Amino acid sequence: MEQNNAVLNAIKTRRSIRKYTGQPIDDALLQEIIQAGFYAPSAMNRRPFHFIQLTDKALLQQLCDLHPYAKMLPQAACAIVVCGDYSISGAFYMDDCAAATQNILLAAHSLGVGAVWCGVEHTDWQQPFGELLHLPEQIRAYSLIVLGMPAEAKEALDRVEPAKLHLNRW
Ligand SMILES: Cc1cc2nc3c(=O)[nH]c(=O)nc-3n(C[C@H](O)[C@H](O)[C@H](O)COP(=O)(O)O)c2cc1C
What we know:
The protein is an alpha+beta fold.
């Protein structure tokens, strides 16, 4: 097994971090983390993603009130809402935003920042999120990434399932 590859190491050790110390995230680190989203692949290279950095505590609390599975938000240092422009990519914005979300998670993890992907697409709170964040009509909130300096450590898991590996045909 490859032990020294930084990308593989980040992929294999990333976990959802939902407990935070309350310390702020260094702004230079945070900008690196957000910018990683722009490097995601996108259908026809249309790059429909937009990223909203949320630091306003009152806003984080309002999002928490809307999102039943993001109760870690009030303890977070900040959050990022990954949004996609439906008018330029149609439904492909979802695939593109998923790739951007994973890039951000891996960047955060590799820089020692805790993060968790909270679902917004396909939920009842997608529309109210859009209203709260004043999104234009063609912009959809796709995911909410909650970030903070980690106050929990999670072990890397062996997640490879050989029964789900297929060669040539099912
Ligand atoms: C599309 C999607 C939606 C998710 N939504 C939530 C969520 O709303 N709240 C949450 O705490 N975690 C959420 N997660 C994180 C998953 O629970 C987590 O990735 C999974 O349990 C595996 O754990 P790990 O990230 O530590 O490897 C979501 C993950 C994905 C990919």
